[in-house]
Amino acid sequence: MRFSSLTSDRRASSFTDEKSKDAGAEHIDQLEVTRTESAAAAAAPIDEEAWRARERRIVRKLDMTLLPTVWTLYLFNYLDRNNIAQARLNSFEEDLSLTGNDFSVAVSILSVGYVLMQIPSNMILTKVRPSLYMPFWVCVWSCISAATAGTTSFGGLVAVRFCLGVAEAPFFPGAFYMLSCWYTKKELALRTAILYSGLVLATAFSGLLAAGIFAGLDGSMGLAGWQWLFIIEGAASFLMGLIAVFILPDFPSSTTGSGTWLFNAAERQLAIERIERDRVSDKESDHSIWYGLKLAAKDYRVWVFSIMLSANHSAYGFNNFYPSIVRGFNLGSNTITLVCTAPPYLIGALITFAMAYNSDRTNERGWHIIASMSVAIAGFVISLATLNVPARYFASFLYIAGCFTGNSLVFAWGASTTSQTPEKRACATAIINVLGQAGNIWSPYFFSAGEEPRYVKAMLLMIAFSVLSIACCALMKVVLVRANKRIKASFEGTGRTPQLYTL
To answer: Which cell locations does it reside in (predicted)?
Structure first.
């Protein structure tokens, strides 16, 4: 079987014409050069092995630039969002006079701002340069997060946390959309797990960072340890946002961003074609962003994945309270408590990488998610069944690894299933993530101050939502099996092999 890296002069010309509309008249000369180079390369067809070799070269370049950049930014994204959990172990609540459910409100209000911004942001992202748009928001949220150090009341804290949610909202769905524009389905689960590991490692290292800051800077220059925590982490993410401008590529068809020096014209065309080949064989041709939103809203699978992700996030509701859970084990000082929060997240990240790698190799998602959430349920059950500290600490390894793995695979599965056009993928990704945030809005209220450290009500609710996630997953497998049968039937007698949904 023979492949061509560049299908024809006409294909290259079409690509150039489309780019010129997006990039503007100032790029016409450069695009004419691209057209000439692409047409010349098209004359030399290559076999399948050569095609794969060139694909691997593109993937290696992405793995050395795009992936580590968005991973680092996501790590800071979650550091700046989650440091409130560590601040609670310092004088945070006392300094701001927080009482009752005030802390839970401060945690959940961020998700409200997060929800409001995601869909419009992803719609905008398809029409702008991601290498400028995403770093801009990184710098904005960094300043807002650092400003938390200046709050003196519950009202000020809520206002800052809401604005932080708005500023952080564009990043994760935008980063995942960028990955899905460059990586194929068989490559995406592992890269999504790596991206998600930024969340887990941020949670792990935030405890270690907080332990060091609280021990060394608490009271320095008249500032409490929690204030230094927000200032230092905000400044670090701002610096990374500036660096990202020079490393992030734009879209495969773009002639801007780091793609101009990462890839030549032939490689950019190959990057476009391999994503086109990878789409399920029921794709649409209308590339209007509003039509993409309409397609996403009408696709019931988007809503099933939204419920699944919301259930997963609800089961992951322990995250902002995990330092408080570990404090209930009475292991020693706050420093020891914060250090002990790290190992479960580090082990969880390793397990997730292994599961995602296997998911990509086997081209299977559903059973991997079901197995992960079943492990999480086992952890919650152990936490309910005993007061033995070693057993409950071991249980936390199970539910952290299970929920984290389930979250990363659900998002990868949902995006690849709803990608008939790039515009629909952008909107569907945002909708799934937005509705999934419902779990982050209500889950902080699972944890009542009077129930620390066992949190019986919270554990029961997180078991229930884990079961809901498994049920949605099983339903989606049935739906996609039937869809694949219909696609196969439509291709019978054509001599062509269709691209099917990942199960």
So the answer is: Membrane
